Amino acid sequence: MPCVGDWLNSPLSIVQGIFAQNVPNSDWEKKVTEYFKEKLKENNATNWVPSLNDVPVHYLKPNSLVKFRCMVQDMFDPEFYMGVYETVDPNTNARVLHFGKYRDVAECGPQQEIDLNSSQTVTSERQTFYCVPVPGESAWVKEISFLTEPVQARVSPSTSYTPSRHKRSYEEDEDMDLHPSKQKEQHLGESCCCGSDIHGCVEPKRLETEASAGHHVISPNCSPPLDLNFPLPGEKGPACLVKVYENWESFKVNDVLEVFGVLSVDPVLSIVNSEERDGSSLDPMECMDTAEEQRVHSPPASLVPRIHVILAQKLQHINPLLPACLNEEESKTCEFVSNFMSELSPVRAELLGFLTHALLGDSLAAEYLILHLISTVYARRDVLPLGKFTVNLSCGCRKQHSLGKLQGRTGLLMDCFSLQSYHLRMSIESMNQSRFIPHKDYTANRLVSGLLQLASNTSLVIDETQLEQGQLDTAGVHNVTALGNLITWQKVDYDFNYHRMEFPCNINVLITSEGRSLLPSDCQVHLQPQIIPPNMEEYMSSLLTAVLPSVLNKFRIYLSLLRLLDYSISDEVTKAVEEDFVEMRKNNPESVTADDLHKMLLVARWV
């Protein structure tokens, strides 16, 4: 039986064994999936798999098993590859079947050639996702996720893998990717690979429709820098081309996934892509893709690694303090939930006290902030999103300097509890110059990200206190309109040039302002502090350091868990609500509307 090191460090050897035992039976692919699924269920084995979120890609062994927690930023056209191909030895005419799944480059022996006309060849299809780290992922989520992994999962890939050459630095690796001639010299004589993609080794033709890249990587030989296409400015982490082989139709743009797959950083990819670009510039008929599309769809593998997915799951949440899936009734999840449910009331009381102190003694504002933190869109009725609860926290005149500083610290307070968050400081300049709405770039054939391309349950804190008088240009008006649509309808209209497409979202929006916000909200809360500390920064800092980490983690579990719990009301309660609403309308028909009923039901749901 293979040991742990085999399926972690050499998953392709496991696949090869299953393939050899089951060919020509087509069930070998299902058996591969089942094998790794069972392995990952054993003794928290998922924690032993190195994560690209924590370990730099140049420390990981190529073709090893890795995991990646990410958001689908873009999807590309399906691509065809040789799922099964046959090689032949010209000297002996010996034939060998190989699998092409989970690979970018077709492999064959030193004296073998791929038989492109073999009757054994099986053409298959796969989908490529361009995935980025979850935008705005909080520091505490990253830290706890990192600390819960065994030490071996962080360091063993880099120490157990001894390459046959001296390890290059990240910068040298990038330089090699940008200078294919150096790679050709280095890989001369290597016989483990034919040097071509899975289409065959006669002419190197690009197999993938690979993707664009938000942060910029400056290259000495490329005029424009490589754009990794992150939605939020200042984001760090790897972007990956994720190759999905099964059930890709169940995933969509902006989904948060955890994928387990084979890491591919083969430098040959850069050689093939560079040769293809050079060749297509001489003969435009060789490739229908534009040079820009080839450039952004085939980035250097050292900068944008490939992951060939063996298993993938859509994440309900990314809270490392909770079980990954809360749907399995017979799992330990229910035991975890039932144990914590008995603590809900005391934890809520502690959280209310903490937020009351943070909001300078205003317990009512703290109550509404809790409702905001646990709100989520749980259903949609036509165009109406049910469950959203946008709060506008206002503090009055700007001359109240301490209150203004409190609003500036509100975003930091939200970071303590939110799984993902982003602070948007509204100003005339930022509204006019920022790119809020994702749009389609048809030249590069990619979806260019915008600030509002966020994962579900992201906390968006909008600070209006710095907004001055000024003139919004066309872009600024579109951005403000997009924010209004996000708050009211929980949707963002992506720009596809010839039309706009609605993408539903689930974003918690908290607005801080002096008076009533210029943006819509479900509830305005005017902050009424009971104390005014002389130094707001010291007050908030001492408050955050005083709370125990264990208590803070209970708050985080509470807020995440309440969003995920199922909730329903009985027929008796429904009837009572209807009767009460009718009575309220009789007494005051003008001031009580259906929208008021919706808000009251929403507050009752979260309380």
From TrEMBL:
<keyword id="KW-0539">Nucleus</keyword>
<dbReference type="GO" id="GO:0006261">
    <property type="term" value="P:DNA-templated DNA replication"/>
</dbReference>
<protein>
    <recommendedName>
        <fullName>Mini-chromosome maintenance complex-binding protein</fullName>
    </recommendedName>
</protein>
<dbReference type="Pfam" id="PF09739">
    <property type="entry name" value="MCM_bind"/>
</dbReference>
<dbReference type="InterPro" id="IPR019140">
    <property type="entry name" value="MCM_complex-bd"/>
</dbReference>
<dbReference type="GO" id="GO:0005634">
    <property type="term" value="C:nucleus"/>
</dbReference>
<comment type="similarity">
    <text>Belongs to the MCMBP family.</text>
</comment>
<dbReference type="GO" id="GO:0003682">
    <property type="term" value="F:chromatin binding"/>
</dbReference>
<feature type="region of interest" description="Disordered">
    <location>
        <begin position="155"/>
        <end position="182"/>
    </location>
</feature>
